[in-house]
Amino acid sequence: MMHRLAVLILAKLLRIVVVMAGVVTIVFLLLRLSGDPVSAVAPPDATVDDIAALRKAYGFDQPLHIQYVQFIGNILVGDFGTSFQYSRPAISVVMSRVGATMTLAVLAMAISIVIAIPVGFICARYRNRPFDHALVGFAVLGNTAPTFFVGIVLILIFSVWLRLTPTSGSGSFAHLILPVATLAVASTASLLRMTRSEVLEVLGKPFVRTARAQRLPRIRFILAYVLKNAAIPIVTLAGLQFGVLLSGAIVTETVFGWPGIGTLALEAISRRDYAVVQAVVCITAFIFVALNAVIDVVYQLLDPRIAVE
User: Which pTM value belongs to this model?
Assistant: First the structure.
């Protein structure tokens, strides 16, 4: 078991390297094909010599293949270049915002798991009851409602009408409530539906009916026979939902003025701050790829019989 797990981890690490190499290459080419960043950041009264000096200072006067080799070499030591807008290393600019985005995503994911799994189990256990129909309806609504719409509705209710929370900004626990709730709605709805569906399927299997006939303690029956066998699809969806939360944070951060990597990415794209855009995309992509690798390892821990490529 341990040998197989070690081989799996090494294979996943190699895959992370290959995928990240592809991401870095695509980001490098797309950003440089989108226009000249030096012209965008140069002052209106800049002369041709000033623009040429800026281009040389940032390495944009080199041939594309030379820029690419230099870019790869710099990334290997954690250097994504210097931000045009902030005049400091892009990696430090991005890392100063990662914590804010991860706070939203982790809290939203934790709330989703705590609510969706037990409620999904209860819906499956008491299926076709009014309680079940009401919560399934909420799940459908939560999946279909756009993130920005949910955020605006929450602001209208809790900030404008009830005056319980601030409309935007950061700095206190109160500022976290609405952004986290906005992100948690869709992930909770998805996890609830998945949990209900998987638990219903497991409850109908012969070995579960046999275990129920043995009158095992309720907690043991639920954890060892039901949730354990329903866990793999739920773990998969939870991992994917965490990635969705990170990407959805761009909209949520914009609605609530939250200083995370989402708002930073929008600012960097609008100003053609290549270094920051590259750092944001590469760091976000690494989180996605690493998360998928962790999910595959968790598969093996939950059920060693599963063959993960």
Answer: 0.82
Both tokens assigned to 169: 């900004």
Range 268-284 burial, b when 16+ CB lie within 10 A, else e: beebbbbbbbbbbbbbb
Kindly give, in sequence order, each residue whose CB lies less than 8 Å from that of residue 61, ignoring residues fewer than 6 positions away.
52, 55
List, as one string, the DSSP characters of the chain: -HHHHHHHHHHHHHHHHHHHHHHHHHHHHHHHHS--HHHHHS-TT--HHHHHHHHHHTTTTS-HHHHHHHHHHHHHTT---B-TTTSSBHHHHHHHHHHHHHHHHHHHHHHHHHHHHHHHHHHHHTTTSHHHHHHHHHHHHHHHS-HHHHHHHHIIIIIIIS--S-SS--SSHHHHHHHHHHHHHHHHHHHHHHHHHHHHHHHTSHHHHHHHHTT--HHHIIIIIIIHHHHHHHHHHHHHHHHHHHHHHHHHHHHHT--SHHHHHHHHHHTT-HHHHHHHHHHHHHHHHHHHHHHHHHHHHH-TTS---
Closest listed residue to residue 278, CA positions, set 20, 14, 2: 20
Which residues are within 8 A (CB) of 65 and not within 5 positions of it... i.e. 6 or more apart? none
What distance in Å separates the CA atoms of residue 251 and residue 104, rounded to the nearest whole number? 12
Strand partners, 82: 89
Q: What is the rounded average pLDDT for all residues in the chain?
A: 84
CA distance 277 to 280: 5
All structural domains of the chain, each given as residue ranges with its CATH number in brackets, are 2-76 (no CATH), 99-259 (1.10.3720.10)
Question: What pLDDT digit, counting tens, does each position of 29-77 carry?
Answer: 887 776 666 766 677 777 888 778 878 877 778 888 888 888 888 888 8
260 CB-near residues (< 8 Å, 6+ apart): 97, 98, 100, 101, 104, 249, 253
Least confident of 106-115, 168-177, 245-254: 245-254
